[in-house]
Amino acid sequence: MLTRPIHCHATAHTGQRRFLLAADLTRNPRLALRWLRSRTHHIATQLDPPYARPLRHWLTDEAEHEHALHLLVHGHPYTLTAYDDEARYVFHAEPTR
Description:
Blueprint: E1 6-14, E2 17-26, H1 29-44, H2 49-60, H3 62-73, E3 78-83, E4 88-95
Helix pairs in contact: 1-2, 1-3
């Protein structure tokens, strides 16, 4: 398993502006996935139901979680993106170099 730290962040993008919502440096891929799930849940609870639906689906998609874990274990980044009427939300995890 990859032992390099993994930089995780959640951002909101509105027009030309980018807002950092949360960030962390995790010790391994499993902790990064846990962080992504936590942040995704947090944002999903704040969105209107139609916009939260894709995030809620992702939260229960074990196959996608395994895919994300596989990418992170092998040193590749993983990104999840969601949208509402006013913003694009990006959840990103990337092993440090």
